[in-house]
Amino acid sequence: MTTHHDRLVALRAELAARHLDGFVVPLTDEHMSEYVGAYAQRLAWLTGFAGSAGSATVLADRAAIFTDARYTLQVREQVSADDYDYIGVPQGSVAAWLAEHASAGARIGYDPWLHTRAWVTEVTAALAGTGATLVAADTNPLDAIWTDRPAPSPAPLVVQPDHVAGASSAAKRAEVADWLVEKKADALVVAALDSIAWLLNVRGADVDHTPVALSYAIVHANGETDLFVAPDKLTDAVRQHLGNAVRLHDRADVATALGRFAGKRVVADPTGAVAAIAQALEAGGASVVASRDPTILLKSLKNKAEVAGHRAASARDGAALTRFLRWVERTAPTGELTELSAAAKLHQFRRDTGALLDLSFPAISATGAHGAIPHYHVTQESNAPILPGQLYLIDSGGQYADGTTDVTRVVPVGPPTPEMRDRFTRVLKGHIAVATAIFPDGTSGAQIDAFARRPLWEAGLDFGHGTGHGVGAYLAVHEGPQRIAPPSYPGGQSLEPLRAGMMLSNEPGYYKAGEYGIRIENLLLTVAHAVPGGDPDRAMLAFETLTMAPIERTLIDAALLTEQERAWLDRYHAQVQRIIGPLLDGDDATWLAAKCAPIA
C-alpha cells in the first residue's frame, strides 16, 4: 500500500470483511487531543492530509474529507479529489453527509474510543431517517491494515516542580474533591492529557510538541486519585512525587476500572471523555454526570508562578526570534533560503538558548502563496524557495519548562507593495484594538473578536479563523476553555467568559489566495483593570501583552494609524527593547534598537 488510494481500497476491503458499509476516521486519540502521537495519526496515514483538524468518512462507493476554513487550500493540495469529496465545516458535517449518502440498512462503523457520546448521538439521529445504523467497532479496522503503525511512545513521566507549577498536586486534587462534593458526585474521570499533567504536576513526551503522557485519572471525592499509565513510564522520582494518595495502575486496565462504580455518580466531561468511557461506566451500573471537567477552567487561570515563568520564557524566546528575524532579513534576498531551511534555522536559534525542550507546534514557515494557507504545513514536497517580492510568514513557538510560547511575524523579502502595507497595517490596527481592549469581567471572547476585524471589514476584507486561543503553562499551545472567535465558532469556546489569569493569543490576519498571507500574533494575559471614574462595583479587565519581538516596521503604513495606535506601537517596541535588548549583543542588539525606534 504505497499510495493513499491503495490504503483506501484496503480499508474498504477490511470493512467488507467486518460486514460494515462505512467507517468514520477522525483526527484525534483516545483523549480527544488536538495534537496526537504518531500511533494515532490515522487520518494522515489514510488520506495524506497533514493538517491538525479534520475527519473522513469512507463508504463502499465514495468517501469525503471534512476540514474547516483554515485548510480549504491545504486539503486540496494533499488529498486526491479522485478519492474524496471536500466538505467544509461547520457548513457541512459528517452527520449530514452520512445522512445523505448512506444507503438504507447500511452499517456505519466508528471507534468508540475516538468519538464523544454527543457525536454518537448526533450521527445516530441523522441516520435514523435513512434506515442506516451506527455500529461501535470492537477494534479499529484501520489499525488492522496499517501494518507498520508506530507503537505509542515509551517516554517516562517527569516531575513538574511545585515552585514552577505554583501549586502542589495535593492542593489541586483537593480543589477537585471540593467540587465533587458540591456536585454530589463520587468521582471524576479526567481524560484530557494536559489536564492530567496539570493536576498531578507531571509532564511527558508521548505527543509531539505537547509535554503529556498517555494516561487516565479518576479523582475521588476524598481527593484520592487512580492514575492509569504504562508502568514503565513511572520512575522512582515520579512515584515519590505522586505519593500514597495516587494509586497506580496500567493504562490498559482503565475500561475494567470504569466498570466498578455500580451505584455511584461519576462525572465524565461530554466534550473530553470519549463515548467508550460513558459506555463502560453505564455498563458497570454507574450514573454518568455529564459536566465539564473542573480542571479545564482551573488550569486556564494562571497563578503568579506560571505567569512569572511565562514572562521569562517569552523574553528568552523573543531574543531567539529576533536573531532569526535579522538573519532572514539579511539572507532571504539571496534567494537561497527555503521554507524548511528557514524553519530549521529558527529551531536552531531556540535550541541555542539552552532551555528549549521542544517546539510548541510544527512551525508554519510559509512564503508567497503558501502564506495564504493559515495552517500551512511545509513538507519536502511542498518546500518552496523564499524569493524577492514575497512576504514570508513564520508562526512558531517553543516549549520551555517555565512556559509555552506562540508568536507570528511577517518579513518582506525586498520592498513590499502598497497593497501589502495597507493589509498589514489593517491587521496591525485590529491587533492593537484587541491588545488595548478594556471590558467588564465576564465578557466573552466572541464579544472581543470583532475588535480585530473592524479595520479589515472597513475595506471589505476579513479572515477565516478565530482571533485567539488559550495557551497552557508548559502544556498545550491550544488550551481551553477560552477563545477569541466569532459566536459561531465550533465548540462554543468563544462564548466562555474571560477571567483574570487567562492567557490567549491575539492573531488577526489577512490572506490573499495565491499571493501572500499576513498574521501578527502575540500572547496576552487577562488582568484586572481599574478605570478611573468608573463604577466601583463593576469589575473590569484588560490585556497585558506577554510576547516580546519587534513588529516589522517597513510593512506599516503609518498614515493609517491613529495617534493612539502609534502610541501603543511605540510603547510596545520600547518594552521589547527594554526586555530583550539586554539578551542580545553586537549586530543583533543594534538591529533590534533600529526596529524598536519610534514609528515615523
From TrEMBL:
Protein source organism: Sphingomonas rubra
PANTHER family: XAA-PRO AMINOPEPTIDASE 1
SUPFAM superfamilies cross-referenced by the UniProt entry: Creatinase/aminopeptidase, Creatinase/prolidase N-terminal domain
Annotated GO MF terms: metal ion binding; metalloaminopeptidase activity
Record-annotated Peptidase M24 domain positions: 310-525
Gene Ontology CC: cytoplasm
Keywords tagged on the record: Aminopeptidase, Hydrolase, Metal-binding, Protease
Membership in a protein family: Belongs to the peptidase M24B family.
Protein known as: Xaa-Pro aminopeptidase
